[in-house]
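Problem: given the chain below (256 residues), write out its structure.
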Amino acid sequence: MASVSRRLRLLVTNDDGIDAPGIRALALAAADAGHDVVIAAPARQSSGSGAAILVDDDAEQVPVEERRPPGRVATAWAVHAAPAMCVLLGLRGTFGPLPDAVLSGVNYGANTGRVLLHSGTAGAALTAGVAGVRAIAVSLDLGDRPDQLGWDDAGATAVRLLGVLMAEPAGTVLNLNVPNSPGPHRFAEAPLSSGGVVHTSTSDAQGEDESVRRALARGEVDPDAGSDLDLLAQGLATVTSITPPGSTALLGRLPG
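Solution.
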């Protein structure tokens, strides 16, 4: 696998919030590999936000608080906004020099299949891609060991993929799902499954009170053979290109 021949400036974000263990593991893995890392992540849980650029409490300005960074990470910022807004701010120089690439994650639970549309982890990476910046969205499958999560292994796996990412055209976005088992893991390119894992809402009616509860659940559809959901279940680290489309090939054939 191709290695990165230069020191990169990396913006690391997530949708689980700046205090989540996944973002710490990802930032430390990148910093330990010799890269210049800045964390800019939501101040609170923002799962399921997609590519929304909402600001907490609908404020006109975006509150930003500097935090003490872990290890060799350069700086860390808690942003009172959705993950995609964190990326937009980073691409405008709010957190220092512009990043060469964006790492989003490590997300709690796999982001597989077409329900990737709803993921704040993926939404942040896609926001970078739209701006022409390469990005990886990283998620850790819970597997059969939800009480023994391999955050450090997932972070290291993502850093191993940086060489591939940087060899691709500007704006390339990769979605990486890492199995929750001891690594190093073998990579497998995989299409999105028609099923997947998503935060779903269920309505529980009790008397006159009705509440909505979010839960992490797998889709109803069985995984398609060779898809990301299928190969992840086989213990492979799945990689899917989710580079934002921008082709205008149809425009010449549209009716007047």
